[in-house]
């Protein structure tokens, strides 16, 4: 509440030069670009990369796509979403039609009209160009809970719901691309 009050107070904003550090701030995207490059460097591999990104406001995947445009050898991105599936529907139908956001257990991704998507479209110009590098999948709360339980029962690792959706996206991608000889990262 105090942060919102500070942002709405014109005197405080002018004196302190306040700005937000959420994903609509380009400075945050610029910093996220670097970990795509670090990931590539740390893998020491000639294989191309596939990233599965839990996607709500599409800031993280936007940063990855900027890294791709800068020349990083990325084969593909997976935008893994919860039931707020505007972008998966867009990639299937070509129609951008956000519905009201629905609450899920992966609440940081409860966004139906992602503010970073216009940046992505600026880079790729058309849906067909975007579909060459990005797939988008949507997952329910039940699917998310089921994979969290599976990982816990088999590996004793407690996944968060957002990471679980990223993992589900990667699993679906691998099933669809049997000849997958990439470094798959979520």
TrEMBL record:
Tell me which positions the record assigns to the signal sequence.
none
Domain of life according to the entry: Eukaryota
Source species: Clastoptera arizonana (Arizona spittle bug)
Describe the location of the Tryptophan synthase beta chain-like PALP domain by residue ranges.
22-172
Q: What is this protein called?
A: Tryptophan synthase beta chain-like PALP domain-containing protein
């Amino acid at each position: 509440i105090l942060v919102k009050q500070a942002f709405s107070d014109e005197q405080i904003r002018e004196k302190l030069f306040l700005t937000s550090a959420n994903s609509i701030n380009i400075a945050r995207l610029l910093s996220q670009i670097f970990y795509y490059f670090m990931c590539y460097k740390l893998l020491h591999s000639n294989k191309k990369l596939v990233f599965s990104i839990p996607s709500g406001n599409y800031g993280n995947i936007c940063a990855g796509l900027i890294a791709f445009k800068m020349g990083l050898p990325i084969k593909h991105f997976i935008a893994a979403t919860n039931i707020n599936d505007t972008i998966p529907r867009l990639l299937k139908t070509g129609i951008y039609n956000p519905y009201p956001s629905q609450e899920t257990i992966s609440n940081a991704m409860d966004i139906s009209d992602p503010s970073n998507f216009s940046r992505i479209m600026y880079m790729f110009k058309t849906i067909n160009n975007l579909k060459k590098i990005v797939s988008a999948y949507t997952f329910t709360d039940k699917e998310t809970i089921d994979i969290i339980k599976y990982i816990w029962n088999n590996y004793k690792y407690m996944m968060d719901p957002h990471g679980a959706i990223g993992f589900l996206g990667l699993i679906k991608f691998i099933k669809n691309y049997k000849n997958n000889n990439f470094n798959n990262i979520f």
